[in-house]
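Lab notebook page, bench 4
Experiment: in silico fold of construct C2
Operator: M.H.
Input chain length: 92 residues
Purpose: comparison with the prior construct
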Amino acid sequence: MLTEFPVIHTNIWDAVWAIPVIVVVIILIKALFKVPSSWLSTVAVAIGLIISIFISHWGNLSAGIFMGFFYGGAAIGAIYSMKASFRAYREG
């Protein structure tokens, strides 16, 4: 039985390169495969999980899953906030 939380060792460089990579891949996937906007969050989290589990936190599955959700969420949040800012700029 697990009685302690896992120790997750991460640094700022994981987020500095992982989130922009996810943003670029999401934009490419949307342009090339015409993925509906409703699926972009799911695709971003899936890519974040892949990057986190297989690259950033290799050998620590719990840390990879935990941080993968954060990477995907941060990337899709950045995309949606840029979209909202651009719309506000165009309207005002």
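Observations: Residues 30 and 38 are 11 Å apart (CA to CA). The chain has one domain: 13-91.
Next step: discuss at group meeting.
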